Amino acid sequence: MADYYSQTVIQQNIPISDMTVLERLVLEAMFQSDVENHALYFYHDEGPHEVIYLDRKELVAANDPKIDTGTLGTLILDAINEAAPDSADIEVDLTAISWEVILQPIIARSSTLTYLTIVTSWTCSKMRPDGFGGMATLVTADIIESQSTYEIVEQWIGEMEDTTKPAPQGMSAALDQGASP
User: Fold this and answer.
1) Domain locations in the chain?
2) Residue 172 to residue 168: CA distance in whole angstroms
3) Residues 48, 102: Cα–Cα separation, whole Å
4) Could you report the per-residue pLDDT of 85-95, keeping only the tens digit for each?
5) What dihedral do alpha carbons 96, 101, 102, 107 form, nearest 10°?
6) What is the H or E stretch that residue 51 is in?
7) Burial (CB count within 10 angstroms: exposed 0-12, middle 13-18, buried 19+), residue 129
């Protein structure tokens, strides 16, 4: 059986003061992290967790409805409401949102961050052609742009084919005479 990994690094450190308690709680459950100069460096050597379990009391205390955490706040409130009233831990299924969406409100509130870049490498424990590659992501307060290594290669091949293909028969003559194809 092959094991697939999505090693991920958020390349800029996020100042602790830019995150709400809820955002920090969730991001630290999803990723591994190190504190560096009052900021958190987020990474994961296997891939960010998509389902996390958080202490109910911590989660309820961290979910401040007065602070806009975007989609995350709604997701957390739903998870709290759906959990059994006596459960000490709350299961939070993050597959409904992308973790990049959690970063956008942080960037929007930050006085120092205008964007975050995330790099992911896809690896596999067996040499399978679908088990290797990567992705780069740019997150701002307004956009999330990603491109995988497969998409980059497809783009290059398309550009190469556009410059090496001869014009279709009759196309050159029509263009030479000023006619539109």
Assistant:
1) 4-148
2) 7
3) 13
4) 899 999 999 99
5) 180
6) strand 51-55
7) exposed
CA dihedral 20, 24, 30, 36 (to 10 degrees): 140
Find, among 107, 125, 22, the residue nearest to 66 by Cα. Answer: 22
Helix residue spans in 53-148 (DSSP H): 56-62, 71-82, 99-109
Q: Are 38 and 6 in contact (CB under 8 A)?
A: no
pLDDT-derived band at 173 (thresholds 50, 70, 90) equals very low
Cα separation, 44 vs 42, in Å, equals: 7
Residue written as token pair 């706040």: 73
Look at the pTM and tell me if it is higher than 0.85. no
Residue 166 is classified by DSSP as P
| 136-175 as b/e: b if 16+ CB within 10 A | ebebeeeeeeeeeeeeeeeeeeeeeeeeeeeeeeeeeeee
Residues with Cβ within 8 Å of 1's Cβ and at least 6 positions away in sequence, in order, are none
Q: How far is CA 26 from CA 19, 55, 65, 163, in A?
A: 11, 11, 16, 48
Q: Give CA–CA dist 90/57, Å, rounded.
A: 9
Q: What's the CA gap between 81 and 176, in Å, rounded?
A: 69
